[in-house]
Amino acid sequence: MRDDTFASALLDQMRWAPGIILDPSSRIVVISDLHMGDGSGNDDLRRNGELLGSVLEKYYFDRGFTLLLNGDIEDLQKFRLAKIRAAWRGLFAVFDRFAREGRLYKIYGNHDEGLLEEARYPYTLHTGVRLGWGPRTLYVFHGHQASSFLVKHNDLSGAIVRYVLHTLRIRNRSPSEDSVRRYRVERRIYAFSRLRGVVSIIGHTHRPLFESLSKYDRLRFEIERLCAEYSLSGGERKAEIADTVELYKEEFLRMGRKERRQGRSRSLYGSELLLPCLFNSGCAVGKKGLTSIEIEGGRIALAYWCEEGKEKRYLEREAGPAERLGEGPFIRARVGNQALDGVFARMDLLS
């Protein structure tokens, strides 16, 4: 797929997408890639199902958020819809609560595109949702539209996953695990967003991005910033910086070793000035929790949810103290938090 072909198709999609006008009182949460299955050991969501249900019901619903489910919610490439609904009745009941109050938007991805053929599916399906912040646009869509193979042959891809890979217990090399495909998708959407002054909020690759930066890039830039500050500091602050750099460096090197073993490239961007125009809500099937994109009070944030005691060691230094969800074992941290006006101002200045 040529970049101009992708851009033309995405612009056309945006014109027909439903819109939400944001103001400082708006509360939006974007969650993607739940990959709900049949509740068996092959169900990707089983690890975080209780966490997700608690997060949606006890935090986002109770606080008046509008929920944007951004694709690959039900994994129809592996399981039948009837089995998925039977396994996750409680979670669908939470979706129903949002829907009854007009606070649910259901965007489909490549793994749940088959929902378009379900005559009795209870929720309206969208290709994306436009968010308006004054004259500016944030566009929420799954992201598989940037893959030429999935646009042309998603039915074939689904058949291979269900009848070959799933049957033989062969792990699917999805964009979340294939760095070449993942970065191709992200770079294409980044280029589109940069050129048109649009903020894109995607899922699909399972890789959280905040202001176009992955965790790897954020750590790298923060280490560099702290090293520069270190030489100008003294006393307790100097010791604090040294301790923080050690934690960040440990995680940075761990990620580098992991990606080298898997043959992945570690950074998405080259030497150009980076525009904060691409965000990714990550996924709900992470080994240590789930992530979401929040818009609240005119600000955009990347939230990380996990069970207390299972968070990364460096998290408190990067995100600050975690917030507990009620009396349960789950906690929330904001890894990134920025004013929307600041995001668009930087885009204008750096473009």
Unreliable runs = 153-166
CATH topology (fold) name of the largest domain: Purple Acid Phosphatase, chain A, domain 2
Number of helices: 10
Number of strands: 13
* First-to-last CA distance: 25 Å
- Beta-strand level of the residues, as a percent range? 15-25%
Radius of gyration: 20 Å
Helix content: 40-55%
Summarize this, please?
Helix content is 40%, strand content 19%. It has 351 residues and is an alpha/beta fold. The model is unreliable at 153-166 (pLDDT under 50).
Task: Outline the structure in words.
With 351 residues, this protein is of the alpha/beta class. Helix content is 40%, strand content 19%. It has ten helices and 13 strands. The strands form two sheets. Strands 5-4-3-2-10-11-13-12 form an eight-stranded mixed β-sheet. Strands 1-6-7-8-9 form a five-stranded mixed β-sheet. Helix 2 runs parallel beside helix 4 (89-100) and helix 7 runs antiparallel to helix 8 (235-261). It starts with a helix and ends with a helix. Residues 153-166 have low confidence and may be disordered.
